[in-house]
Specification:
- β10 and β11 form a beta hairpin.
- This protein has a six-stranded antiparallel beta sheet with strand order 1-11-10-7-3-4, covered by helices on one side. It has a five-stranded antiparallel beta sheet with strand order 5-6-2-8-9, with no helix packed on it.
- It is built from one helix and eleven strands, in the order βββββββββββα.
- This is TerD family protein.
């Protein structure tokens, strides 16, 4: 597992990055991290006693409008091209094999790029700390993207993120003529929750659209 500083800005085609452009895995692996509630409401916060990080894959059309979102509330898109492999609530509840440094990730989203509908132009990869705990409070952890041969194009070390970061736009996939172009964003978001984060990313994508000529 990576223990280095966050990856530098990365932007290239999947083939240029040495990835098989057929299937990708957007995945999360972190060590169970207990958080002790403080104050008079401690006894009411048992369900918030461990860091819970969630992943989402958001599909946008050419106008950066949300077409579909795959996350713990919806485990696959309408075309079944993107599939969530199951939600972990605290980094250890999927069994010993899903613990940090083990072969399996606690949370994983599978993207079968050839099946993604033609009207989908952008894909946003997002992470959120469900209870609002900062990512950097985990003992160890990372988010990564790989192909089905195990080749990784980036790893984001959660410990190296800003102390107040609880929602992160991890990366952006943009459809090109015969491939997908990947940009590692590593951008903290102000949104609270994955649904609001998907809207914030839509706004950022729309801002970056080229201005039509002749207007």
């Amino acid at each position: 597992m990576s223990t280095t500083a966050p990856s530098p800005l990365l932007s290239d085609s999947l083939r240029g990055l040495g990835l098989d452009a057929g299937t990708l895995f957007f995945a999360l692996n972190y060590e169970f991290t207990k958080i002790e509630p403080k104050g008079m409401f401690k006894r009411f916060k048992k369900n918030q006693s461990a860091i819970d990080i969630d992943l989402a894959c958001v599909l946008y059309d050419d106008n950066c409008v949300i077409s579909d979102i795959v996350w713990f509330k919806q485990l696959r898109d309408k075309a079944e091209s993107v599939k969530h492999q199951g939600d972990s609530l605290n980094g250890k509840d999927r069994g010993e094999q899903a613990m940090y440094l083990a072969p399996l990730d606690q949370e994983q989203i599978r993207l079968e790029l050839e099946k993604i509908p033609a009207h989908i132009t952008h894909i946003g990869l997002i992470a959120n700390s469900y209870h609002g705990h900062s990512f950097s409070r985990v003992k160890k952890g990372e988010i990564h993207l790989s192909d089905d041969e195990g080749n990784r194009c980036f790893e984001v070390n959660l410990k190296q993120l800003p102390r107040d970061c609880t929602t992160l736009w991890v990366a952006h996939l943009r459809r090109s003529v015969d491939d997908w172009h990947l940009t590692l964003q590593n951008l903290p978001l102000t949104a609270d929750g994955l649904a609001n984060a998907a809207q914030e990313v839509a706004h950022e994508l729309a801002r970056a659209l080229p201005i039509p000529q002749g207007i």
